[in-house]
Model the fold of this input.
Amino acid sequence: MAKTTNMAFLVQRAGYKCENPKLALTHAIASQSVEIYLEDGDSVVPVVAFVGEGVLNCKNNQKAMEVYGITSTENHIQSALLCDLKVLICKEDLARYGISEADVPDASAMGADVTVQVVPWEQIHAALKGADQLLFF
Done:
């Protein structure tokens, strides 16, 4: 019988002076490559959710490469979207930090079929409750 493992990666910290947000996205993207180790029909379904200060990672036009010489969390979010990962951003927390929905990363110009979903906390909470594995970043 096929088994689906739901994994939730919860980003709740700002990306200043830490790699946590990028690690969450990297692990979520990498979770798609484990299929070679699974039984036939089994799958892993990741979701990445940004809440609290974590939404500060979800701002367009980050200048990380220019200023620090590293890829930005924005680039990692775009890579996740290109891999068709579900990326959720808490609507209430965006409002609390004065970030509009138009300011969140998008990868449609790069050919992504999915977009970031700005959703209320209740929807993120439901995704977390449905997860078999919950990882905090």
